[in-house]
Amino acid sequence: MTLLRLDHVFHAFDGHTVVRDVSLTAESGELTCLLGPSGCGKTTLLRITAGLERLQQGRVTLDDRVVADAGTSIDLPAEARGIGMMFQDYALFPHLTLYDNIVFGIPTRRGDRRKWVGQALDQTGLSSLANSYPHMLSGGQQQRAALLRALAPEPRVLLLDEPFSGLDITLRIQVREEILGFLKQTGVTTLMVTHDPEEAMFMADRVLVMDAGRILQAATPPEIYFNPVNGYVAELFGPINRIPATVVSGAVETPIGRFEAADLSDGTSAQVLIRPEGISLTVTEQDSHRSNTVTVLSARILGRSTSLRLRCRNGANDIELHARIPGVFLPEAGSPVVVGVNPRQAFVFPSR
């Protein structure tokens, strides 16, 4: 069931368009993630949904009720939309205790929700801190408190704006696991914004990739990762190798293998994009004439994996490739290795 819908939304600041004809849906009980770089329009969409930014063009519907429609001037205030929002900086009231922050938006008559707050404090490990003030809490504790405050009035939809950006990497991993479990337990429909692809992959049931105010691809995390619609989406998930090639008979030939390009016309100038983790390496003899052989430039262990720089001959030119191999793999600089490529980690797109 679709709980939240945005239809053909445009938005501009001082004549500069930041959201361009965006339509999206959020399904009941699911976590939908807007993923993209700073300035792509994702936070503006969140603010339009919440009623914090006046809708300029398009429509916002919540549970089959129109809450904003630029064509008819419908524009319900934020407090009448049944939406909770957790801000990037948490925005806790410094003069209120943790408990009073959380219950701030609950009407006095809602005793059931105040009972829920007590249970939620227990579940999130904050009970002993109920009478503490925000400055006395760690970043992770403030984050959990802000989430509970957003959920306390029992919103139909929860909006999360870069919820983990203020936490260090170790705490971020721990807290997002806790928060995801808690959100799934509550069953609230959630729309989240992040610039972190790993975070989107971990948290979301569905990812909407944005750039320059548009949604480029909307799909499940595995579909986004293994079937990106273009090079931009493929590159969101980290460094990527690029090998120029030309399409011949529905495929491209490269020094490290042949790749299908059935969707491109013969003669098209293309690029093969290969993720470093999609490359496998096998040590070979120094005078080996096997195909797919490249030369190691450097190998550096990163703990759980090894990062390698490789030199590959491509016609008259050398190109540099990067590989990420699980575990320890440290061939000497200058030694030859044979390259294998996981076809699910290689993509052929027209050259830009």
Your description of this structure?
This protein has 352 residues and is of the alpha+beta class. It folds into two domains: 2-234, P-loop containing nucleotide triphosphate hydrolases (Rossmann fold); 239-350, OB fold (Dihydrolipoamide Acetyltransferase, E2P) (Beta Barrel). 22% of the residues lie in helices and 38% in strands. The chain has eight helices and 21 strands. The chain has helices spanning 42-50, 98-103, 111-123, 139-151, 169-186, 197-203, 221-226, 231-235; strands at 2-13, 16-27, 31-35, 57-62, 65-69, 74-75, 83-86, 157-161, 189-194, 206-211, 214-219, 241-246, 251-254, 257-260, 269-274, 279-283, 293-301, 305-314, 317-326, 336-341, 346-350. The chain has a six-stranded mixed β-sheet, with helices on both faces. Strands 2-1-4-5-6 form a five-stranded antiparallel β-sheet, with helices on one face. A five-stranded antiparallel β-sheet has the order 16-20-17-18-19, with no helix packed on it. A hairpin with a 2-residue loop joins β1 and β2. The longest helix has 18 residues, at 169-186. 35% of the residues are buried.
Concise overview:
22% of the residues lie in helices and 38% in strands. It is an alpha+beta fold. Strands 7-8-9-3-10-11 form a 6-stranded mixed sheet, sandwiched between helices. A 5-stranded antiparallel sheet has the order 2-1-4-5-6, covered by helices on one side.
The low-confidence parts are none
How many helical stretches?
8
Strand content: 35-45%
Global outline: globular
Structural class: alpha+beta
By CATH, the architecture of the largest domain is named 3-Layer(aba) Sandwich
Beta-strand segment tally: 21
Q: What is the mean pLDDT?
A: 91
In CATH terms, what is the fold-level topology of the largest domain?
Rossmann fold
Number of domains: 2
Helix content: 10-25%
Widest sheet: strand ordering: 7-8-9-3-10-11
